[in-house]
Amino acid sequence: MDTGILIDSFAEFAKNKNVDRPTMIRILEDVFRTMIRKKYTTDDNFDIIINADKGDLEIWRFREIVDDNSEDIWDHDKISLSDAKKIEPDFEIGEEVAEEVKLEDFGRRAVMTARQTLIQKIKDLEKDLLFQKYKELVGEIMTAEVYQILGKEVLLIDAEGNELSLPKNEQIYKDRYRKGETVRAIVHRVEMVNGNPKIILSRTSPVFLERLFEQEVPEVYDGIINIKKVVREPGERAKVAVESIDDRIDPVGACVGMKGSRIHSIVRELQNENIDVINFTDNMELYIQRALSPAKIGQIKIDADAGRASVYLKPDQVSLAIGKGGQNIKLGSKLVGLEIDVFRELDEVEEEDVALSEFSDEIEGWVLEELKRVGLDTAKSVLALSKDDLLRRTDLEEETILEVFRILSQEFE
């Protein structure tokens, strides 16, 4: 293979990949120095001159002339006087011989090895460039095209034909994909797998929702409105705490838009995920009230050391605070950073009711805790529900629930 072809092919690749000239020259020089070391053991006394624009290569070997009987004659950087005179008759001892080494001097096998080395370095450089490119894009939204749907992931390609992965656990469970359609997601992480960069996307990350707000709400993009925290149950519900650095701008109103115009496109992108936008505040009691909206809270007790908060509500507000499948209280707890326990406030007409704690000698503690977790802290509040309701809302088994019903019912017989 001609040296010019090697250099030209690499220069063309480097140009297409926007590789800077110093990097391109360094890689080419590494390849040829590998050839030199294999033939001559060392490359210390060799100079390589590459003109990538013209596809030219010059390799020069430098050696000092010594007497034919010198002990140094076998050193890699020495040449005997008699051998030097074969190159130039008027050479003398002590002078330096600069001898050009031609590519064909290395032999066909060495040239083919150099070609393979160059191809591998090209591939390694391409992988490194791809890894670095997407490493800088982590947390950013991108659009890619679906080209293969597998059991555990959907494979996509970007505008440059690079393969991206959207794993099952990073997909919104309502998402359905078809080959050729475009998908929006964030670059979640980039990792090397068996020497190849693997770019993993996500549509379930809270960051994805945050970036969608930046795209749809100019005030968020400009930094006038700050998104303090995002918590999600992907495809179901999300809570977003926002604050404005400009008192004249209502952060919630700006994010929702006139008649929901701004948030509507975000909801549609997230498969109709119900998004609650609330005003952030340093007042923890007020923050908890907003986090458990739409429920109306009567009283709040915060134990900062234990990382818990107890909220007391009217009976008709308990289910609102807990939400479908416990989503509202779960997201509210994540948003404020405290475990929230819900309790019912007793009306005067309910004075005959008995607190569940009174049954601790008959009902195991972990069962009582599970009932309290879903807002049931009195006997009548439990008896007001059906067996199926408790099976759905708690982690209790049917046999345990029936036994609880039996014990509590005896209290009012």
Automatic annotation (TrEMBL):
Compartments where found: Cytoplasm
Keywords assigned: Cytoplasm, RNA-binding, Transcription, Transcription antitermination, Transcription regulation, Transcription termination
Transcription factor NusA first KH domain sequence ranges: 203-279
UniProt xrefs under PANTHER family: TRANSCRIPTION TERMINATION FACTOR NUSA, TRANSCRIPTION TERMINATION_ANTITERMINATION PROTEIN NUSA
Binding partners and assembly: Monomer. Binds directly to the core enzyme of the DNA-dependent RNA polymerase and to nascent RNA.
Biological function: Participates in both transcription termination and antitermination.
The family this protein is said to belong to: Belongs to the NusA family.
Domain Transcription factor NusA N-terminal: 6-128
Keyword Signal on entry: no
Protein species of origin: Shiella aurantiaca
Superkingdom of the source species: Bacteria
Domain (NusA-like second KH): residue spans on this chain: 285-345
Protein name, per record: Transcription termination/antitermination protein NusA
CDD domains per record: KH-II_NusA_rpt1 (cd02134), KH-II_NusA_rpt2 (cd22529)
Pfam families: KH_NusA_1st, KH_NusA_2nd, NusA_N
